[in-house]
Amino acid sequence: MRKGRAKERRITPDPRYNSELVSRFVNNLMQDGKKSTAYNIFYEAMDRMQEKGIEDPLETFKQALENVTPQVEVKSRRVGGATFQIPQEIRASRKLSMGMKWLILYSKKRNGKSMGQKLADETMAAAKEEGAAFKKKEDTHRMAEANKAFAHYRF
Predict the structure, then answer these.
(1) CB distance 110 to 45 below 8 Å
(2) How many domains does the chain divide into?
(3) Is the pTM of this model over 0.70?
(4) How far is CA 91 from CA 22, 71, 96, 108, 141, in A?
(5) Would you call 30 helix, strand, or coil by DSSP?
């Protein structure tokens, strides 16, 4: 068992936008250690967004990420033989991580030729508060709202 929480590692910013947020997203996007492929997918998505008339794709990406980042989640807790879904606030690093993972997951499930195109489409949809990743956030918040009567069982 750990004595405390693990130290958060410093992430080097990406080469094109010089942003740690982009690097963190690319690290989540990466599969089998293929970071250069993940960067190519991300940059392709940004280029496609620019082709579709978005003047600042990085700002759109940040807006999309903000729109799909949840504030609360429900966690199961057993109390006296019954299991309750208890709404809880999420710490900042987990919020961001969940938002990124949902954006990637629902991009993969989308229809499109390449992953870059799918990611661009899902990002643009999320920036407009549409799309599957945004719906997931809304469902999570709705579930927490429905179960707020059990909030007094909090850990």
Answers:
(1) no
(2) 1
(3) yes
(4) 20, 9, 9, 26, 15
(5) coil
